[in-house]
Amino acid sequence: MTEARGSAGQNGTAHARYAPGTPCWVSLMVHGLTATQDFYHELFGWEFQPGPHQLGTYMTALIDGREVAVIGQLPPDRHLPVAWTPYLASDDVDVTAETVRLCGGTIGVGPLDAADAGRLAIGSDPSGAVFGIWQAAARPGTDISGVPGTPAWNELLTYDTASITKFYETVFGYEEEAEVSADFDYVSLLVAGRPVAGIHGMGTALPRDRGPHWKTYFEVADADAALALVTGLGGHVVGPVRDSAHGRVATVTDPEGARFALIEGPR
């Protein structure tokens, strides 16, 4: 991780529109919807309201009444990996989905309408990492950032940046900024000169049971306290908390195994 969105004060930063390519939304599909709501309510203080209903059983997570994420119920017969999925903004999801296919990726869901909320597709890059595409209508995406409990950064963990960066640049029009380091393979993806996401090449250190995947970082006020809360609520700590140039960071899973990161920004 190189450039997480910084805190924007006590009230956070409101979002009315996301430029194409910018991570704008995160969703999670789970087997136990009620238990998962309880976990994230205790961890992040999320409140929940039903919907959107167009695509199945979903609950929208809120902070101070503003939309942060969506958690949905997997059908009983669907034994899919439980994972947070970031959605990248698009002005035309149909065109973006076709570009994904032309560049060697796949589209597994959509494009389809989510009533008046927007239009979406879910696909994967050539390495198999899953992501969503969101064309906003009534719902631009996550309403707020910069306060505890909100998404702070999204990062692709893959084998190496060289083999996959071109795909995302072509599909979403990113500029790239490589980390200058002999032993750290990292590229920041930029929109209008601003880092919005990252690609971390991990080589053989990439977990074999996971493969290439996107990871969402959520902001917390106290990383150590949040870690203790995760384990107390039935989640797991994947690695010890570490200090970075952007704050204290740790990777964890929820009780169903969905992996995500916690970040406490510098004080």
Automatic annotation (TrEMBL):
Q: Which domain of life is it from?
A: Bacteria
The record, for CDD domains, names:
SgaA_N_like
Q: Name one Pfam family in it.
A: Glyoxalase_6
Q: InterPro entries, alphabetically?
A: Anthracycline_SecMetBiosynth, Glyas_Bleomycin-R_OHBP_Dase, Glyoxalase_6, VOC_core
Q: Which residues cross the membrane?
A: none
Q: Which Gene3D superfamilies match?
A: 2,3-Dihydroxybiphenyl 1,2-Dioxygenase, domain 1 (3.10.180.10)
Where in the numbering of this chain does the VOC domain appear?
22-136, 150-265
- According to UniProt, the name of this protein is VOC family protein
Species of origin: Streptomyces vulcanius
Upper lineage is: Bacteria, Bacillati, Actinomycetota, Actinomycetes, Kitasatosporales
